[in-house]
Amino acid sequence: GTLVGQFIIGGMTCAACVNSIEGILRKLHGVKKAVVALTTSLGEVEYDPSIISKDEIINAIEDAGFEASLAQ
Ligand code: 9UX
Hints:
Layout: E1 3-10, H1 15-27, E2 31-37, E3 42-47, H2 54-63, E4 67-70
Antiparallel strand pairs: 1-3, 1-4, 2-3
This protein binds dioxo(di-mu-sulfide)dimolybdenum.
């Protein structure tokens, strides 16, 4: 199955941050699609919850030096 998670991402200050985070997310096993927006600080991630969890997605963003939380 596929779920869509929305995450608030802090610490993005330029378009290269967006590309960097999208690249990190798209390489994660279980992530099918990732779109990050600088102006809204939001990331939308399509993922397979049997492979990766929301917490693991948040940890991957934070490991890259940004802040991340669930947008709910
Ligand atoms: Mo831009 Mo983001 O020079 O980590 S890449 S601030």
